[in-house]
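User: Structure please.
Assistant: Input sequence and predicted structure:
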Amino acid sequence: MSTGERVGGGRPRLVATDLDGTLLRDDGTVSARSVAALRAVAAAGIETVLVTARPPRWLHDLAHVVGDRGIAVCGNGAFRYDVADRRVFAERTIDPALVAEVARDLREQLPCTGFAAERATGLAAERMFAAIHDHPEDLVTTDRIEDLGDARVGKLLARNQHLDDEEFLAAATEVVAGRVVLAYSGAGGLAEMSAPGVTKASALAAWSAELGIAADDVWAFGDMPNDLPMLAWAGRSFAVANAHDSVRAATTDTCRANEDDGVARVLEALL
């Protein structure tokens, strides 16, 4: 595998990168070097896409990273987001009846599980949901997530403070039994659930197809298990040095860690 300092082979037509733990540093900031590299790639005519588990509301401050052309596939593939315009322009949501069914089963089989829902319009959460981050000011609260009714949920979140992270995620995976896509992005024991077939990979593939770009012409960067389908789909895949073991084992290449501007170093060598 390459260390990312030299990148032979053909030039990509699209570069897709995860954010947290990959492009962003551990404190959630993005270095000037990474911004310059990503924008230089875009200026050279290569499409750039941010592909992240983050909801749209967590991308507002990243317009400078992608410039005027950049979009994000966010919410683990649930939303397409124009970063510069702060606009969701496509979404793939979970059927409300399925939200209710999955929440009911998790609540019954894993007592004290709390739920929240990422939507294009913002976050809704049960009053008992144990948040990892501060709630936004426009939070919609409810006693049960099912009471949102026909609201369009892009990503259903579940957390249980009485079970350790691995125990809860394993149990939740068994309970949902493939009815939704359950992903783990490394966020404090959160089970992140999307509609059937909705992943970073499927969303990126759909966007690339609309642009007329084949998988072989895509380079993708990631660090966590929820990136694996995207990395497997892309023609060339890079794991940052700090990536989860399963990710480093699955990619075609590795690059330096997020704290050492690994993505930027690959892009600089590309140009």
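The chain has two domains: 14-92+199-270, 96-194.
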